[in-house]
């Protein structure tokens, strides 16, 4: 009888410990799974234009997904084309708007960059479909994520540590730290890295930060990364602050990141309740617009999903 009691006590202690672990490290996950009811659906533009012969533009496709085309090279950052940001097709955060463009309608994709392994940023189904349509595609991932991709039959996977760079004929790449975290499940927290990508083509430089909180260290980064022409900065999923402030920048902090890094023009991503968020849908855009009116140094834009922004290479 004593052994059964001891077993029960041990089981209870383990359950309590696991509950405390989840409450400590996975608060944001449970906040994600409990979206605020009544948030309006963000407006968007379906891309009907044939992009296969178009270059020198970018468009936000929702969440942190950016399609960038420059010098006839086509790049996707954090692509997710699935209906759910989840390991399961039947449960988990669901897309609030239809796909802006189908994978089959994308131009040839040369490079993919993944900021970290959360399901709304690293979507395995999307990556497999992209490789099917683009056999020579190159996947660039944080250190610790290469095995995940190769075990799912993805080829041409390059893995980067923080501040690691790679110089290609038409592109230079640097992976920089951000203030966030990584996990695919409950027992792999921070087993892989997370961060942002500095990409330099012949004419322009870009920074994509898929997810980050504000970090005063960004002030020091600008000396290391140099001039950035265009930044893609997250400005959503920041409410409530007591849960999200250590991992998600609010709009004011997104602007400050842009100023700290001396980015010429920044564009908001990771907002609009595409898959989840607690704050009102358009609050991030309204705050950015208010800041811009008060501070002429701010050059920060919040286009809707599907708006095509042409690049001026003159």
Descriptive account of the structure:
The chain contains 8 helices and 14 strands. The chain has a single domain, classed as Metallo-beta-lactamase, Chain A (4-Layer Sandwich). It has a 7-stranded mixed β-sheet. The protein has about 325 residues and is an alpha/beta fold. The protein is globular.
Strand segment count: 14
How many domains, in number, for the residues?
1
User: Which series of helices and strands comes N to C?
Assistant: HHEEEEHEHEEEEEHEHHEHEE
Q: Given the structure, what is the number of helices?
A: 8
Radius of gyration: 20 Å
Predict the CATH topology: Metallo-beta-lactamase, Chain A
Low-confidence stretches: none
Largest sheet: 7 strands, mixed
Reported CATH architecture: 4-Layer Sandwich
Class computed from helices, strands and strand pairing: alpha/beta
Distance between the termini: 82 Å
